[in-house]
Amino acid sequence: MSSSNITANWSYPTSVKLGRGRIKELADACKSLGIKKPLLITDRGLASMAITKNALDILEDAGLGRAIFADVDPNPNEKNLEAGVKAFKDGGHDGVVAFGGGSGLDLGKCVAFMAGQTRPVWDFEDIGDWWTRANLEGIAPIVAVPTTAGTGSEVGRASVITNSVTHVKKIIFHPKFLPGVVISDPELTVGMPKIITAGTGMDAFAHCLEAYSSPFYHPMSAGIALEGMRLVKEFLPRAYREGTDLEARANMMAAAAMGAVAFQKGLGAIHALSHPIGAVYNTHHGMTNAVVMPAVLRFNRKAIEEKIGRAAAYLGISGGFDGFYDYVLKLRSDLGVPETLTAMGIASDRIDELSAMAIEDPSAGGNPVAMTLENTKTLFRDCF
């Protein structure tokens, strides 16, 4: 389908309503989940924007109120979460509209989850069967409304929450984190600044690339990741050049969702490095992924060369691994991505600390080359 009028209804991995103007279905989405008094959760930057006011108007016109919580940091932490849960309880809310980019979506989902729990959030980290500790009856329904195209959190069963004391990002997981309804309206993304379009788009690409490269066996995810990379290759440069290109915006929303579905196969060193950098320096997650991506490709080359060669052929890139690597460099350049962590404003004096955090990150286990403290220090140095 090649037009700006892309419209689709998907039931995989949840109910997804994709298309221009579909934000108008927000109230109906809430009602379909039994939500009568939703709390819209978003970040501070979006709180005063017209798209957010419009969403609140839609809820209010349907008799669902216009409650909003926006005390959300770019990398949400447990303090944001505690404040959000308090607002949810104090307002007598019965569901959440998670609205925004990764931060608003992640915190919104986590508030809905934690509203009925008695344990601290860290007891639900994505470790073994810790998710079974949750009180199922205490989990509120969620409608997710992404306003960027990158994280894919709208179709994810987890949230990333930063510990404000240790500065470590933790993945909080439960199957019920998956929103009951997703509204992906490309018109909500046209106002993204170029730098956010680039960063979020490269996040989607990183999800697809790392899922595809992961050594774990999951052919379904590998196929989704491969097509996700193709969509990014075709449509991210268009969305970056012309923000009002709704065909490009819609396809990037699809690619973002595909990346998040695919990475159940695994992530890797790109995310293992970017998580501690983001936690310590508060950098944009997707842009950080883009900065470290070439170094990680070099680091993993021997383990992924053949696989990347197949991907390159599918993507219409000649030259196998080298051609793919050159494509990544050009894409970064075209999108204005800093070439190194130094250019991003990160100092190299905390490599030991960052490396120790990286090898403990859950993403490290999915890297095609085993990450040790020593080789991770070398990898970090290669990013500066």
Automatic annotation (TrEMBL):
Keywords: NAD, Oxidoreductase. SUPFAM superfamilies: Dehydroquinate synthase-like. InterPro entries: ADH_Fe/GldA (IPR001670), ADH_Fe_C (IPR056798), ADH_Fe_CS (IPR018211), Alcohol_dehydrogenase_Fe (IPR039697). It catalyses: a primary alcohol + NAD(+) = an aldehyde + NADH + H(+); a secondary alcohol + NAD(+) = a ketone + NADH + H(+). The keyword Nucleotide-binding does not apply. Residues 197-382 form the Fe-containing alcohol dehydrogenase-like C-terminal domain. One of its GO terms (molecular function) is metal ion binding. Its cofactor is Fe cation. Pfam families: ADH_Fe_C, Fe-ADH. Residues 13-186 form the Alcohol dehydrogenase iron-type/glycerol dehydrogenase GldA domain. Belongs to the iron-containing alcohol dehydrogenase family. This is Alcohol dehydrogenase 2. The lineage of its organism: Bacteria, Pseudomonadati, Pseudomonadota, Alphaproteobacteria, Hyphomicrobiales.
